[in-house]
Amino acid sequence: MFDEILGLPLHPLVTHAAVVFSPLLAVLSAAYALIPRFRPRLDWAVALLAVAAPVTVFVAKESGEAFKTRLFQDQTPEPVATHESFANPLLIASIALGVLALVLVYAANRSTRQSAMIVGALTVVAAAVVGYYVFRAGHSGATAVWGG
Question: Residue ranges of the domains in the chain?
């Protein structure tokens, strides 16, 4: 299911969505947490990205496993293994950020200021973690393909 789309390997195609949506979610959710006056303008964008980013990371992870199996049945080269090692942490971090961003949008609109501040602080930390892992996964994937 996650191997090909229209005869092309799915992983290189969907990876671009994950590399765009994940940092965008990190930046917008951090801005939502830190700059309250932007909240009315960012509600829907943060909520949509909170769903889209983890989904694209999940599809990128699964398609990467299918792609690796197709290219390297038994032996995984070291650069590919390094790239693969960032998949699960990035998926977990993006799911956590997505959940926190949704809770933050809800808390900012419905809860007390104190609960929004706590969730906001956690969201900023999760955004930093997602930024770190998306950078590491992207860089190691580019290194695996292009060398360096």
Answer: 4-147
